[in-house]
Amino acid sequence: MVAFEDVARAVLDENRYVVLGTADGEGRPWVSPVFYTLSGYREVVWMSSPEARHSRNLAERPDVSLVVYDSSLPVGEPAAVYMSGVAAEVTGSAVAEIAAAYGEAALPKGGRRVRIEEVTGDGIYRMYRATIREHWILDPDSRPDGRAPITL
Description:
Layout lengths: L3 H11 L2 E7 L5 E7 L1 E3 L3 E6 L4 H8 L2 E7 L10 E10 L4 H13 L19 E13 L8 E4 L2
Antiparallel strand pairs: 1-2, 1-5, 3-4, 4-7, 5-6, 6-7, 7-8
């Protein structure tokens, strides 16, 4: 039998999009699929417009929920990783390092390198990262909600 942690790592490594759940200052929820890379299994990194609704929400409320779901599997054989954490725009001297690491990790997933001028100054994007506090994996045998906690 394959360990839940191994399944979770495979789902996170092999997929391109995470669904990011945010809420604005009044608690109105919003979900957005974003292309992501990983920094280990405790940080999820993405590039977005600071004007996107999810980015504006993060400026008001940093708590996030995330899910990566392998939709290529047949019906009845789902694989998903659920996560919760806090997220924010990457600022200061960390931007260059995060943007470079994101670009390198994006290449094998079909993404591209990031030019620093795209994510600083007048650039239309910014780098964001979520620090993951908890992971769960989809497990139909777990009660009450079909998720089992895991440690990555």
